[in-house]
Write a sequence for this structure.
């Protein structure tokens, strides 16, 4: 009885979706063999892992998927609907900030009989969408139907430090669905990309404005990234604060609370400016704009164009409204604060001391390896210092990641997860300073000072030089640096 | 009186052989006359709603140590409303008072004016002699009306921070199967008390040794207690010969390296400098692990030399190595004060301070405040707050005031969800204490209060209306949320009385 019912349902489904054969055929299964580096032993890679995701064919004989599906991949294999043949694919463009990627397939016959899917408009809240993909739990294509639950700015977990427009749906989006098309009226209205562990019926997809911006970005064969304003806007709803700023009680305006140093807006806006309109969008007092009938945080107003664009901003300063042009750029200055991909971790080894730049990836690895609270100084340095003590910020804080044991360093007490302040009296701003400090040293003993504790360790320079090759060989480190 | 003494002596004479034979029943009878139960009723404060308090009752153990004096630890004696004593493990409770308490040293003396209570009680001898390995140690307490006497094994003497403060001094560590101790239970060896139990973790009991207690009590009796001092500098072990060679110290590795010398808030001169090597303190050689050989306890961490017969304000002689040469310096011990920490570790005998303005609740950042996140507060409390606990107080930033929550009202519309920021300035004036905040609020700018926060990830500034609107809102909030007072600022109380 149960079996009969199940079959019936499938038959009905195939009837219902019979007209939707195009998306079905154009949804692609992606298999990757990926290998991530060990950020605390940065010359080493973890074991190769097999991972699966989804994608779909777009114009120009290309496949769109999520960046996280193909990140760190050593090999990408794509498979068509009901076709056993594996095809090798390569990543043509990848946008880690918006979690999108475009693949090409060397064997162009892959695209034979595969129509490119067209993109649709932003779906309405409460409207129905269907996800296509190859999630875990089976080998064949899977469809899940759901409604658009809400549309707002939310964190993109792949990079970890960006909030972009996203759509929440109750359609099941499971591991393996990533990169698959979300379809409405035969058109792509999203790319499935993430869920929230522990929450049921909560999946997220990347909506058309983010996808279209990405595609426009790569038209010049180079991906620049999502432009940012570098501004922290906060609601301005307290009557007293509005009154103090001589602002009319008209429910408009978000206050500029903080500007990231050296951001493109820092010389145009200033704290306590009140932004009344960004581009065509009036900004409400809760910091939102009305975008395609959805109330979303106003930062979206800066993210719709391309890096280098100017966005007209109407603002209120010193009791008067004025309009300024804000140039928005895709910033890479905060890259260490987000997850990094497809890069070789940088390091330098001297006398068995392994130095590496501080990054979110390194911090994650260090925290996993240690239950101590040693990560607190690193956390402060990475996420808080730039805002709290901008004058003390280093371009690229450097960590003594580990000490490869040898007679020359055996008496070091500080052996890992400590931030380097100075070497031989030189303040270390970036890893190249470490190299220069050791390579130009004429000291008998190199003095390495550490941040916060102000402890220090010394190293016999000549002995360290002599031991270098042996240490690298002993620990299987292919070279003393990777920059 | 003579008759009483005679009986006492006879009892002791009869007791000693029994003790030697290890008969727990006979041993118990000696300590029945000296060990008493202590019951403390006290106020516990809710640091999340600092105007709230609830009553709590805790049990402790006391030890008769002198003429109408009962010794116990200072733990659980703060914010007391009633202290009572019971002898013999059962029967009548007698009201008592705290004669003296030192939260830094974690010691207190109790007494009672009821003469009948003292009848039959007998002071014990505190033994200044350290127990040795192999000594039979016993932990004694009243339990369910009977004196419990459990064996403990001496593990080591180690320099550890006091339970209630950052003062480090020698403590005794014991292993025992006994459970639920750490309430001031005496530890005895050969009919002498060698310490009282301050805490327990698993099988390990941390004991305040009798010698430390004697030192504190003797100074108090002489009216000479100036408070405990400490070393206000940081050092690292000198285990790396390359570091010593770089500092041109000849000979075998020895001494410790001074790494960080923070500002002193007590006007004392900071005679040490980073990169000094401390070779000797008060005549004791310091080894490269930072230990010295104590005549009484063997190898101990050098921190104990700030408490070994020394008080705040005393001079400690140090032989150091600086710039390739030996140098003698005199280090004057600063007094340990909770208030000298950026985030004070202890707040005792006072309700939590707070200030409410228009529904915004401001509080000083203290460890008791952070402890509302539970035993694992260092992991669970907001990162930025816990990170402040590792920072030193300076003259510029001696303390921190935080916006802890907003009680919703039309006045504070738009700020209801703001919390967890440390205050930088109010109306342009630097704020580092709640009284400073109160003063700054008296100086609004153009009838507005401008509150700037220290840099944080969420919010830098808020503005409030001042004047009548503010006063009316504050009053409205107090009434709506059932709070008696808008401001609770206790004058700084001494943690040692």
């Amino acid at each position: 009885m149960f079996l009969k019912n199940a079959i019936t349902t499938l038959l009905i489904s195939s009837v219902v979706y019979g007209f939707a054969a195009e998306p079905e055929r154009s949804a692609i299964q992606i298999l990757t063999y990926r290998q991530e580096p060990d950020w605390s032993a940065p010359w080493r890679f973890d074991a190769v892992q097999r991972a699966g995701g989804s994608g779909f064919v777009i114009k120009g004989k290309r496949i769109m998927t999520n960046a996280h599906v193909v990140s760190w991949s050593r090999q990408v294999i794509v498979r068509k609907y009901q076709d056993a043949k594996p095809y090798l694919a390569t990543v043509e463009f990848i946008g880690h900030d918006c979690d999108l990627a475009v693949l090409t397939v060397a064997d162009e016959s892959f695209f034979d009989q595969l129509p490119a899917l067209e993109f649709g408009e932003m779906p309405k809240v409460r409207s129905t969408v269907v996800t296509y993909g190859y999630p875990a739990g089976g080998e064949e294509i899977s469809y899940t139907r759901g409604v658009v639950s809400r549309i707002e700015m939310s964190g993109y977990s792949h990079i970890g430090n960006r909030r972009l427009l996203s759509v929440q749906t109750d359609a099941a989006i499971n591991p393996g669905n990533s990169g698959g098309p979300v379809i409405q009226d035969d058109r792509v209205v999203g790319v499935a990309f993430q869920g929230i562990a522990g929450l049921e019926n909560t999946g997220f997809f990347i909506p058309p404005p983010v996808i279209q911006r990405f595609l426009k970005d790569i038209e010049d064969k180079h991906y620049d990234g999502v432009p940012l304003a570098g501004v922290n806007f906060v609601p301005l709803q307290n009557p007293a604060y509005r009154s103090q700023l001589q602002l009319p009680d008209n429910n408009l305006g978000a206050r500029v609370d903080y500007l990231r140093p050296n951001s493109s807006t820092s010389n145009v806006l200033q704290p306590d400016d009140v932004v009344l309109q960004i581009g065509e969008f009036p900004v409400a007092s809760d910091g939102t704009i009305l975008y395609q009938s959805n109330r979303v945080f106003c930062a979206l107003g800066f993210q719709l164009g391309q890096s280098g664009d100017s966005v007209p901003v109407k603002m209120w300063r010193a009791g008067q409204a004025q309009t300024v042009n804000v140039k928005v750029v895709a910033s890479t200055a905060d890259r260490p604060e987000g997850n990094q991909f497809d890069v070789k971790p940088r390091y330098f080894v001297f006398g068995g001391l392994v130095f590496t730049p501080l990054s979110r990836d390194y911090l994650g690895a260090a925290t996993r390896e240690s239950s101590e609270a040693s990560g607190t100084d690193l956390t402060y340095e990475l996420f808080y210092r730039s805002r709290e003590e901008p004058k003390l910020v280093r371009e690229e804080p450097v960590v003594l990641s580990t000490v490869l044991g040898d007679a020359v360093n055996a008496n070091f007490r500080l052996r890992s997860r400590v931030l380097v302040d100075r070497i031989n009296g030189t303040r270390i701003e970036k890893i190249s300073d470490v190299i220069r400090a050791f390579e130009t040293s004429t000291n008998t003993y190199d003095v390495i000072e550490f941040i916060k504790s102000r402890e220090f360790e010394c190293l016999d320079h000549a002995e360290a030089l002599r031991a270098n090759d042996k240490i690298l060989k002993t620990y299987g480190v292919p070279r003393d640096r990777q920059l | 009186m003579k008759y009483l003494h005679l009986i006492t002596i006879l009892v002791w004479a009869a007791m000693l052989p029994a003790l030697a034979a290890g008969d727990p029943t006979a041993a118990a009878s000696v300590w029945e006359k000296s060990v008493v139960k202590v019951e403390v009723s006290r106020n516990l404060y809710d640091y999340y709603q600092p105007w709230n308090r609830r009553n709590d009752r805790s049990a402790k153990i006391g030890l008769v140590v002198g003429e109408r004096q009962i010794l116990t630890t200072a733990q659980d004696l703060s914010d007391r409303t009633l202290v009572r004593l019971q002898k013999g493990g059962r029967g009548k409770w007698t009201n008592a008072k705290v004669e003296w308490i030192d939260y830094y040293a974690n010691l207190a003396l109790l007494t009672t004016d009821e003469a009948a209570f003292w009848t039959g009680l007998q002071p014990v001898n505190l033994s200044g002699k350290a127990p040795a390995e192999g000594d039979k140690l016993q932990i004694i307490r009243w339990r369910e009306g009977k004196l419990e006497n459990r064996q403990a094994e001496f593990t080591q003497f180690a320099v550890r921070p006091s339970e209630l403060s950052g003062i480090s001094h020698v403590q005794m560590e014991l292993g025992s199967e006994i459970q639920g101790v750490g309430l001031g239970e005496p530890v005895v060896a050969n009919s002498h008390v060698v310490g009282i139990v301050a805490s327990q973790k698993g099988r390990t009991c941390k004991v305040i040794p009798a010698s430390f207690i004697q030192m504190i009590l003797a100074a108090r009796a002489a009216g000479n207690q100036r408070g405990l001092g400490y070393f206000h500098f940081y050092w690292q072990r000198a285990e790396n010969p390359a570091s010593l060679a770089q500092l041109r110290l000849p000979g075998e590795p020895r001494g410790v390296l001074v790494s960080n010398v923070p500002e002193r808030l007590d006007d004392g001169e900071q005679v040490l400098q980073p990169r000094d090597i401390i070779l000797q303190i008060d005549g004791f050689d310091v080894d490269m692990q930072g230990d010295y050989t104590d005549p009484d306890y063997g190898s101990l961490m050098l921190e104990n030399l700030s408490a070994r017969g020394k008080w705040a304000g005393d001079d400690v002689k140090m032989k150091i190595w600086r710039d390739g040469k030996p140098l003698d310096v005199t280090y004057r011990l600063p007094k340990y004060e909770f208030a000298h920490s950026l985030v004070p570790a202890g707040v005792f005998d006072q309700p939590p301070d707070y200030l409410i303005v228009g529904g915004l609740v401001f509080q000083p950042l203290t460890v008791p405040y952070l402890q509302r996140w539970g035993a694992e507060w260092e992991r669970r409390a907001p990162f930025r707050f816990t990170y402040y606990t590792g920072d030193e107080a300076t003259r510029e930033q001696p303390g921190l005031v935080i916006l802890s929550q907003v009680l919703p009202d039309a006045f504070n519309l738009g700020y209801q969800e703001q919390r967890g920021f440390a205050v930088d300035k109010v109306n342009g004036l630097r704020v580092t204490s709640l009284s400073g905040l109160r003063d700054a609020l008296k100086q609004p700018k153009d009838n507005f209060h401008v509150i700037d926060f220290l840099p944080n990830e969420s919010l830098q500034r808020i503005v409030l209306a001042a004047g009548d609107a503010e006063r009316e809102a504050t009053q409205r909030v107090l009434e709506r949320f059932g709070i008696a007072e808008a401001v609770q600022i206790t004058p700084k109380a001494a943690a040692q009385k």
